Amino acid sequence: MQPNSKFNQLIPEGWTTFCYILDGELSVGPQSKNVQSHHTVVFSKIGRSVEFSNNNADAVRFVLISGEPIGEPVTQHGPFVMNTKEEIQQTFDDYRNHKNGFEHAKNWKSDIGTKFINGTLWKD
Q: What average pLDDT does the segment 63-76 reach?
């Protein structure tokens, strides 16, 4: 979003909406609350639009995500998000047994994790 600009996005009432500030500082909502980069704003489901303004000399980058809720239960444990505790348990079992999408997990190595373990992460 360009410096000294405003933006108003229509959102269907009842939708779940949030934005994540990638870079810069953004003023959000009718009260113009300032939000710094690397922060998330979750908007109320009441209302039909969200307002943004960039009152700074630098551009702001952010993502705005909105969708109609599907009304399903949500269960989260560690990195996994499913609908039930049983599905979470099944996902952990699949991960441990390297199946159902985790077939290559056994030999997978993170480049960043390897550099961290070797003490070379910050030497590049």
A: 94
